[in-house]
Amino acid sequence: MGPAVTPSLDGDAAVDHGAPPAHGAGLPRHRGPVRRAGRRIAVAAGALVIAAGAIAATTATPPVVDPTDPSGVSMPTSDGSGWDRVFSEDFADGTSRGGFEATYADRFSVYHGFADTAGTGRYQASVLSAHDGVLDMRLRTTKAGTPLAGGIVPLVDGQWGGQTSGRYSVRMKSDEVDGYGVAMLLWSDENVWEHGEVDFPEGALGAPAYLNVHCLEDPAEKCVHYETSASLADWHTYTIEWTPARMSFLIDGEVVGTTTESIPTSRMHLVVQAGSNEGLPPRDAAGSLLIDWMTIDVPADGAEPQASLPSDGATAPAQGSWTADTPPGDAGPEAG
Question: The whole model's pTM is what?
């Protein structure tokens, strides 16, 4: 490999590739204190509903098992329930390593030439390729010791820019790669942390998938912090449903959380990024984040789609604080 990558950190390289850098230039967004309530769940007042089981009628189309698909589940072809499909990609067009950006320029903005979130790695377009029906982010460290990271932003109608509500689904898995992590997130079009940050899934590659919603009033804190039972090492479909009144989070079509607080009101765009965690990864650490497909839906004209609720709707409050261990009667009025 060539010499270590030493790009400018002022964001110019990112702008050349169609988008400002997420979180600024390596903004340490995950180093603030976390409000904790129990071992696996942390919420601010009125934050989270965690539940298992089937989903309500407003949820996304159930996944269709397809043994010929790379992940075993084909990309949903319909939206419905008040949502309109505005973006879909299943990576059928193969590319060479480093050729992804040119082939998919009308569909994705690619991160290149600036620091990753931890500040130790560098985003490089060369880590991306498409093969066998998947996007492959191949993470590794150069011989000179620079960890390489990858990041993409879907372009709706070929244009950069986000939404003020939407439903976002990505089917992915990863190798277990020491020192590297991934986040699928909603991030401010104006690159302002106080506008909100929603991370789902997020975690170390090959480790448990986390749900994190940062507090609008203090984004260094997480108003929702939940370790799911899903492993990033396995194929799963992760969905964020964002409406003005509620956000819900689904894995393989089942609701794992829902919140009525710290809901962004500014335009946000979807990002999938993988890079170094805090500190330098081992020099021999290498592996891939694989994405089979991804979709974006927005509210249909005149429609006001509702975020999905757990099958036991009585457990989900219309507002207020509720978690899975909240005693009955303490959750407040039920959601309709």
Answer: 0.81
Written as six digits, the tokens of 331 are 């959750």
> 197-220 pLDDT, tens per residue?
999 999 999 999 999 999 999 999
Return d(Cα 158, Cα 311) in angstroms, integer. 37
Is the predicted pLDDT of residue 241 greater than 70, yes or no? yes
First to last CA, the chain: 58
Question: Amino acid identity of 169?
Answer: S
Q: Determine, yes or no, domain membership for 109.
A: yes
**Cis, bond preceding 310 (omega within 30 deg of 0):** no
What residues contact residue 327 under an 8 Å CB cut-off, 6+ apart?
none
In the numeric block, the tokens 């946000």 are attached to: 268
Residue written as token pair 């690159």: 191
pLDDT digits (tens, 9 = 90+) for 47-93: 443 343 333 334 445 556 665 689 999 998 877 789 999 999 999 99
The SS3 assignment for 295 reads: strand
In a domain, 6, yes or no: no
Residue 165 lies in a domain: yes
Evaluate whether residue 174 is within a structural domain: yes
Domain that holds residue 237: 42-72+82-315
Quote the number of domains for the chain: 1
Q: Work out the average pLDDT over 14-30.
A: 40
**Looking at residue 311, which CATH number applies to its domain?**
2.60.120.200
Asked whether the bond before 62 is cis by omega within 30 degrees of 0, the reply is no
What is the reported pLDDT for 156?
A: 96
In whole angstroms, how large is the CA radius of gyration of the chain?
Answer: 19
The token duo for 78 is 């319909």
Beta-ladder partners of 123: 149
